[in-house]
Amino acid sequence: MPVYKYDVTMTCSGCSGAVTRVLTKLQGVDKFDVSLETQKVVVESESLSEQEILEKIQKTGKAAKVSDA
């Protein structure tokens, strides 16, 4: 299963909560992890592209990009 990693600027639990809510509602996300401490979001999805997930995260208003690591 494809695993996508993103760097997302989150400053508080409200920020990480917003990202969590969006990914929970997004059809096609099989599993995800949002880490406020490391500013990372990891998403597993069979049916969504890396770009589709990134755009959804960015709609929360958070600065997000595909992680190099």
Automatic annotation (TrEMBL):
The keyword Metal-binding applies. One of its GO terms (cellular component) is cytosol. This is Cytosolic copper metallochaperone. Belongs to the ATX1 family. Keywords: Chaperone, Copper, Copper transport, Ion transport, Metal-binding, Transport. GO terms for molecular function: copper chaperone activity; metal ion binding. CDD domains: HMA. Residues 1-65 form the HMA domain. GO terms for biological process: copper ion transport. The gene is ATX1.
